[in-house]
Design brief:
- With 122 residues, the chain is of the alpha+beta class.
- The protein has three helices and five strands, in the order ββαβααββ.
- It has a five-stranded mixed beta sheet with strand order 2-1-5-3-4, with helices on one face.
- The structure holds FE2/S2 (inorganic) cluster.
Length: 122
């Protein structure tokens, strides 16, 4: 199980939900299932509307380190994934802070997910 805490202006206060890890469920799907309104459009990693900031909580190493090719491209085009951050992800297994909720597969780890309520803005 993963504890996923959502924080954003459409919420009166932060909301923590329990998500089943490893079921190929995306963060966007978890948000939708819990009526948390993260902006989205394409749901396919191409538009960047579902931009979020993810903070790994706890002492264990981050697990959600795999970015899809679409996620890498869209984040790069939007200036949220520099070459340095990509290198840290691929060499040091340190995921970048900005992600796409529709591409992020929930793993067995506790995370804070921040969103702005505006499409494409973290
Ligand atoms: Fe378009 Fe996630 S909804 S990139």
């Amino acid at each position: 199980m993963a504890n996923v805490t959502f924080s954003g202006p459409t919420l009166e206060k932060n909301v923590t939900v329990y998500a089943v890890a490893g079921a190929n469920g995306t963060l966007l799907a978890v948000a939708k299932a819990n009526n948390i309104k993260i902006p989205f459009e394409c749901q396919d990693g191409e538009c960047g509307s579902c931009l979020i900031k993810v903070t790994h909580l706890g002492d264990n190493a981050p697990k959600a380190i795999h970015l899809t090719d679409k996620e890498k491209l869209t984040l790069s085009v939007n200036g949220k994934l520099t070459k340095e951050l990509l290198a840290k992800t691929e060499v040091e297994d340190m995921p970048p802070p900005y992600r796409l909720a529709c591409q992020y597969i929930v793993r067995d780890e506790d995370i804070l997910v921040e969103f702005s309520g505006e499409a494409g803005v973290e």
